[in-house]
Amino acid sequence: MSEPIVFSNAVIVTAEHQFRGYVVIHQGRIVEIGEGRAPEVGVDFGGDFLLPGLVELHTDHLEVHFMPRPKVEWPAVSAVLAHDAQVIGAGITTVFDALRVGNDYDDEKFGARMKKLAEAIAAAKGQALTRAEHFVHLRCEISCADVVEEMQPFLTDPQLKLVSVMDHTPGQRQFTDVLKWKTYYAGKRGATEAEMNERINRRRAIHAQFADANRRAIVDLCQSHGVTLASHDDATLEHVEEAVADGMHIAEFPTTVEAAAASHEAGLKVLMGAPNVVRGGSHSGNVSARALAEEGVLDVLSSDYVPTSLLMGAFALADVAAMGGLPGAIRLVSKNPADAAGLTDRGEIALGKRADLIRVDAASGQPVLRAAWREGRRVS
Ligand SMILES: [Fe+2]
């Protein structure tokens, strides 16, 4: 670490430009950026891309490693490391692991399980076992009796940097069309039509009783603890006005062009799923991320449920006129999410920024991660 490292012969993508050149890193930071031939060869990239390490604000993927089969709990630190390997292999050097509290379907509690995961993340970080830098994104379902009680123990965890406020009640937001709710949960849960109808009535009653007060309480708690807030599945202008009034910084997965445009206009960072870009549309039939990119109102991509989708999604959007080429598309997965989460030391190739960098080979048409460095240390 004491000697500078030169990355030469690379296609460098900064926040604004793309050019053939070199980057020098020293003591974990970027100290020199140049066009053309490097002062020495160092690590020869052979024309591969040198990009900022990706910043991921919302991945559900840790839970998959923790519960690899229904009712099977894998040792939590091992689950964190399996997740971490997949994340760094996808070029993500900063990751917000989404943990959920508040149940959107039945009365099962998640809080204790999620706390165990948060503690495992801290333990893995504490022993320098993780390769990406991990933070916690707590997802709070407000149509639920006990969500405030379940989320409170996380507020004093220094890893908690982001809280999103969700409402998946049938008839609301993501599920404005109740049929979509039925299809989504019937597929997931295998319930009968009669059971689904009864469940819908129950979810609506819970929403009426708890949602408003829970939202208020969670917003107030996050503001008093200095935690960044995100709204989730905003569908209408009223939702956006509410998010603005609540001081939110990020609009996750708005479901309509109207809500996305109003959020972007109001200064919220509009976040959409990269799988939506890769698959060519939303899995629940709402607005496509590409459509929002074309409108110029998309700010952040998130890998959501497939880590490798982040790099794929950014490259796939580079041809959208409003993006301004690959630098604009890469901003969606680096500088913009870093800024939205208040991480000003990273997210772009610029002098003085953290040397969180990735080498990507896109010659086959599919972007492939070849190497990753975090604060100048090779981690993949
Ligand atoms: Fe949602």
Can you give a write-up of this model?
- With 380 residues, this protein is α/β, with parallel strands linked by helices.
- It has 2 domains: 85 residues, Roll (Urease, subunit C, domain 1), CATH 2.30.40.10; 292 residues, Alpha-Beta Barrel (TIM Barrel).
- 36% of the residues lie in helices and 24% in strands.
- The strands form 2 sheets. Strands 1, 2, 3, 4, 5, 14, 15 and 16 form an 8-stranded mixed β-sheet that branches. The chain has an 8-stranded parallel β-sheet with strand order 6-7-8-9-10-11-12-13.
- The chain is globular and about 70 Å long.
- The mean pLDDT is 96.
- The structure holds fe (ii) ion (FE2).
- The site of fe (ii) ion (FE2) has 6 residues, from loops.
- Fe (ii) ion binds next to loops.
Secondary structure layout:
Elements: E1 5-13, E2 18-26, E3 29-35, E4 43-44, E5 49-52, E6 54-59, H1 61-66, H2 76-89, E7 92-101, H3 111-126, E8 133-141, H4 147-151, E9 160-166, H5 178-189, H6 193-224, E10 228-232, H7 237-245, E11 250-252, H8 257-265, E12 269-273, H9 274-279, H10 289-294, E13 300-302, H11 309-317, H12 325-331, H13 335-340, E14 357-361, E15 368-374, E16 377-378
Parallel strand pairs: 1-4, 1-5, 6-7, 7-8, 8-9, 9-10, 10-11, 11-12, 12-13
Antiparallel strand pairs: 1-2, 2-3, 5-14, 14-15, 15-16
The chain binds fe (ii) ion (FE2).
